[in-house]
Specification:
8-stranded mixed sheet, alpha/beta, 10 helices, single chain, 21% strand, globular
């Protein structure tokens, strides 16, 4: 198996500078770049299988969003919000020195891509939104809130792995080797115990959001979506509790009028270890 190169880029925040890590696959001279960005409490190695499948065509870049994986943690936890993440990606794209990119974003990574793609003069050429849209279901927010940011330690890797399985069953990943590949980067050893590989403080702004702010944020996201004029693919786990079927249909009828593909037997969110899921993304990105 090919292995990615771990690199870092310095980004600006309200307290100074932080380093964002990113995993780079393929020829550094390849001007055709695919950026893949993970969900709320995940990290860039989620895309290993997809990245290897796209190597014949792209240089693939998979950042660890700040506070996750190999990236720094923020001094001010209120910085763990979309504007920070979008700004970090602008810095990353400058480092990559490319005029345009294609974007695959899972959940939060999709919202980051949406925010970036809606900016005037955006370099995003094609956009894949994986199980996320401008309207996020309250049930999913409540579910995520039951575990996000809890300070947990586990006596063994197996115990930590069991916890991740309990909160990630909706991924629909049933092959033990595929699951293990997704799990290893999510955990770090701390002395004799194991912990989740993200800053628990990422939950601080998540928990501080009030209902009126949710409504205002949804309105902003819809305006961003309606402003898109690029080819957009919307993926949805047929059992998703985060992206409703009704919202997905609305996204095919307004803005960029996304092409919708739903995957049976999957909830939130498809993880691109299944060949069918990869084929759908590949066909969209490489189509004329």
């Amino acid at each position: 198996m090919n292995e990615p190169r771990l690199k870092h880029v310095q980004c600006l925040d309200s307290r100074g500078l932080h380093r964002m890590a990113y995993w780079e696959w393929g020829d550094e001279a390849n001007a055709r770049v695919l950026v893949c960005v993970h969900g709320m409490a995940r990290q860039g190695r989620d895309f290993d299988t997809l990245a290897q499948a796209m190597l014949p065509h792209y240089r693939v870049v998979c950042p660890d969003v700040v506070g996750r994986g190999q990236s720094d943690r923020l001094a001010d936890p209120m910085g763990y919000v979309l504007p920070t993440y979008v700004a970090d990606m602008v810095t990353l794209l400058a480092r990559l020195d490319t005029e345009s990119v294609d974007w695959v974003g899972t959940s939060m990574g999709g919202l980051i891509g949406l925010g970036l793609a809606a900016l005037p003069g955006s370099p995003v050429r094609r956009l894949v939104l994986n199980d996320v849209g401008p309207a996020i279901e309250a049930a999913a927010i409540a579910r995520i809130g039951t575990y996000l940011g809890q300070r947990m330690s586990f006596a063994s890797f197996e115990e930590a792995d069991g916890f991740l399985k309990s909160i990630s069953a909706s991924f629909g990943v049933r092959d033990p080797e595929q699951w293990l590949a997704l799990t290893r980067p999510m955990l770090k050893q701390v002395g004799d115990t194991w912990a989740l590989h993200y800053d628990p403080q990422i939950a601080v702004p998540f928990r501080a959001v009030k209902p009126e702010q949710v409504a205002a944020g949804e309105a902003v996201l819809w305006r961003s979506y309606d402003a898109l004029r690029i080819p957009t693919l919307l993926l949805r786990g047929a059992d998703s509790d985060l992206l409703s079927h009704e919202t997905a249909i609305a996204m095919t009828q307004r803005g960029p009028k996304a092409r919708l593909h739903e995957f049976a037997g999957v909830g939130h969110a498809p993880m691109f270890v299944d060949p069918q899921q990869i084929d759908v993304v590949r066909e969209f990105l490489l189509s004329p």
